[in-house]
Amino acid sequence: MNTHCRQLGRRPILKSLAVAAATGLPLARPAIAAPRTLRIGLIMPMTGSLALFTEHVPFVLDQVRRTYGGMLPINGANHPFQILAKDSQSNPNRASEVALDLILKDKVDIMCAFATPETVNPVSDQCEANGVPCLTNDAPLEPYFFGRHGDPKKGFDWTYNFFFSAGQVVGTFISVWDRLSVTKHLGVLWANDTDGNAFAQVMPPIFQKAGFTVVDPGRFDLPASNFNAQIAAFKSANADAALAVLPSPDFTTFWNEAARQAYRPRVVTPGKVGEFPPGVYPYGDRAINFAVEVWWSRFHPYSSTMTGQSCAELADEYEKASNRQASMALGFRHSLLEVCFDVLKRTQDLDKPESIRDALRTTDCKSIVGPINFSKGPFPNTAETLVVAGQWRKGKKWPLELVIVDNKDVPEVPLGGHPEPMTYGS
Question: Where is the signal peptide (predicted)?
Fold first, then answer.
């Protein structure tokens, strides 16, 4: 079996993360009167249905170790620091529990988290309630802000998130779908979770304004046993564009049932799956021309303030070190700690949470994923990163490779091809 095609093993990832967090960034033994050790909490789904999101973390933690050696220069002094990594188990309740442990038991100075609102929102809520600065990414802005009952007039005090907005990503989808001459009947699979409920509120008016009829069979709980009713509704409405926002196991159920029932949409966008090589490899040729938003790639025109690397250099280093294909998640795993360190370096008084919070609030960082500035919104406490669109095609180096097919919002990212419809083996 091709080693590139193996599904991401959860136990090896969990083990490597534990080693990286425990020994890769050790507590230093400073001399008398040396600055105290800073503690950074890092919460992510190491196991469970969202484990695909953590693939690049051991590599990024090793980058941090090699770049800083466990010492962060702040205000003329070198501060030892420790990253405490915890597993949310892809469960919002567990994410909340480990966040509270890091706050109350480990006394973290700043919290970081990523990977969908199911991880980010409960962690952010605990930090907001306990007055702990919190930086997150990889949670779309509307589910993050409105899923936490945010008030656009007030925002939050302690918690900040950067990622794409639903409004911006829908425009990218429409740009691709229109070029594929779809019937403008769009079938959607939005679950009864934070992403699904927020997208069901925000996205339909945007699609409808562009002339699409949204075929929405309604919310459903996860894990789902089958999608027979939804597929029947899509076929009845002649929905030749399909948008799913589902964890990998549930999308597999849907996609297998679609094949059995001969539902063959002209375009398929599988959120939470299509962003990752290990997410699409198992489908083989059935994944060719899956169309997804691309948050980051080796072709993006940015560089890291932490390592000085370009996007291409970061991707190349990861692939050489791991013998695995870099994905868009790499840039965001790197950027989370990159921006976190930028915040700490600008903090005036590290012993005051309010001072770290104030540095977080005034962030203006030209990161590996683009400019991060929380004063520009589109909602309080958020920074919007832009996306392009890509499709999975047969690759030269890897079994499947993501080709950029639309760059209307980031024209500096070069096109690698043009939108193509699904083929279904024809």
Answer: 1-33
pLDDT digits (tens, 9 = 90+) for 32-52: 457 899 999 999 999 999 999
Closest CA to 304 of 292, 294, 318, 293: 318
Residues contacting residue 187 through CB under 8 Å, at least 6 positions apart: 215, 230, 233, 234, 237, 239, 241, 242, 243, 265
Helix (H) or strand (E) holding 270: strand 267-271
* 79, burial (CB in 10 Å: exposed 0-12, middle 13-18, buried 19+): buried
Contact of 289 with 271, CB cutoff 8 Å: no
What is the CB neighbour count within 10 angstroms for residue 320? 8
**Do the bridges between strand 185-190 and strand 241-245 make them parallel or antiparallel, or are there none, so unpaired?**
parallel
**Burial of residue 323, with CB atoms counted within 10 A of its CB: 0-12 exposed, 13-18 middle, 19 or more buried:** exposed
Q: Which residue positions in the chain have pLDDT lower than 50?
A: 1-12, 16, 18-32
Distance CA 246, CA 257 (A): 15
Domains and CATH numbers, the chain: 3-164+306-384 (3.40.50.2300), 167-294+388-406 (3.40.50.2300)
